[in-house]
Amino acid sequence: MPQWTCNKGVSTIDSERVRRNAREIAALVGVPILAVVKADAYGLGIGMVVPAVAEAVAGFVVFGVAEARRVREITDKPILCLGPVGDAVAQQYLDLKARPSVCTVDEARRMRAASPALCVDTGMQRFSCPAQAARQALEAGECKEAFTHAVRPQQAAKFIESVGGRQRGLVLHAAGSSLLADPSCRLDAVRPGLALYRGAVRISAPLAEVRDSRGPAGYRGFEVPRHGVILRGYSHGLRPGPCLVNGRKSRVIEVGMQSAFVQAEPADRAGDEVVLIGDGLEADEIGLAWNATPQEVLVSLLRQGGTSQA
Ligand SMILES: *Cc1c(COP(=O)(O)O)cnc(C)c1O
Description:
By secondary structure, the protein is an alpha/beta fold. About 30% of the residues lie in helices and about 25% in strands. α10 (about 285-290) packs across α11. The longest helix is centred in the N-terminal third of the chain and has 15 residues, at about 15-30. It is elongated, with a radius of gyration of 22 Å. The site of pyridoxal-5'-phosphate has 13 residues, from α9.
């Protein structure tokens, strides 16, 4: 298992769990999986995730050409780039055997040689083609694939209508992790990111010190009977929220730049383990406390400052 250790703790990525997640999604949906590995696989690492899931998925989804190049070094599977093409030319995608996403009739025409996928706007209102222009753009790019970034089932329905219905020779996909459970959204493929990574990340840090609190403590004067300190702070992507201390549910009370206060019990000692994610404490629950998405929790806690840097 890839593991980074430093005096601020240990980050572990369970590649077997990612593989199992991919297999379970495949069994659930019954259509090909396009594994979303953008942003270095949400921080878990393209180099770890791509080999782990390659056999269970039909292809990979990244944001830009640089990420496509990294995936291409590992696998021959098809790659779709989600991000705007900007001033790129079709040859750049052809060289990588990657498909660009296009949003306008002009882009579709310009990328035609690279088998572009049309991204249709069904509400996201971000680099995508207005539904009314979808058929014209499909034709201009001779597209064999179209998708929409949907979070509600109605968007999948609107998407199908915009491209003129499901038809032979046109691969359609709409569902990310949040719509996998809805059979009407699965279409010809699904594009999960988060669902591949659930349960695969564990980050822990030892208590650097523990003390019985005397009056208001920390920057904002929090009051608890006993608190501990870990050497991870907001520079490592940490925020106040739930944690586990010696396996027991506790909380990160206050976060400084390179350290944080956690609520402790009388038996807790320096060196004892604080789990920030993992062991059943998942990104979804942490995100509720952070007022952030689970995707943001993963990327935040896994960013470089949180792992390999001493
Ligand atoms: C990021 C992304 C996904 C994956 O989203 P999850 O919610 O993490 O599964 C799917 N499709 C598009 C277009 C995306 O940008």
